[in-house]
Write a structure and sequence with these properties.
By secondary structure, this protein is α/β, with parallel strands linked by helices. It has a single domain (38-150), classed as Hexapeptide repeat proteins (UDP N-Acetylglucosamine Acyltransferase, domain 1), CATH 2.160.10. The protein contains two helices and 16 strands. The strands form four sheets. The protein has a six-stranded mixed beta sheet. Strands 1-4-9-12 form a four-stranded parallel beta sheet. Strand 15 (138-141) and strand 16 form a beta hairpin.
Length: 151
């Protein structure tokens, strides 16, 4: 019975996520993502189209605070690993929650890797690859993202 319930939850999450990706209005995208288990989304957020979200379970994997702006084509990865490769034996897989705190702004095309926390009031510049936690009230840009200024 538990296997059937987990399968149903995974199917519901997949449908809601795919609907969220293609909806025209931000508030509709947010509505569908809030229906997915394991995702917390705060109030008054803007969610740009074509969010790519890689999640590893139905458990708590993504938290987005209040008044966050996530631009189009952002990728948030909570699970990364070699899948079928022999490298899987080396235990390189990483599965960790991503946290985006209140008032953060994530620019277009940003990639956020597993286990990252984006601090309150921080900005991730367009096209950045965030490989380390971002301190509160900080602007980061580049590949990998580096601090360019404190706010």
């Amino acid at each position: 019975m538990k296997i059937i319930l987990n399968h149903f939850i995974s199917l519901k999450n997949t449908i809601m996520y795919r609907l969220a990706r293609v909806m025209v209005a931000s508030r509709i995208r947010v509505f569908f993502l809030r229906q997915c288990s394991g995702i917390y989304i705060g109030k008054n957020i803007y969610l740009g189209p074509y969010l790519i979200l890689n999640r590893f379970t139905n458990e708590d994997t993504l938290s987005i605070g209040d008044r966050v702006a996530i631009s189009p084509n952002v990728t948030i990865i909570t699970s990364s690993g070699p899948e079928s490769s022999k490298l899987k034996l080396k235990k390189l897989e990483k599965r960790k929650k991503v946290i985006i705190k209140n008032d953060a702004w994530i620019g277009t095309g940003v990639i956020i890797l597993p286990g990252i926390t984006i601090g309150e009031g921080s900005v991730c510049g367009a096209g950045s690859v965030v490989t380390k936690d971002v301190e509160p009230n900080t602007i980061v840009v580049g590949v990998p993202a580096k601090v360019i200024r404190k706010l």
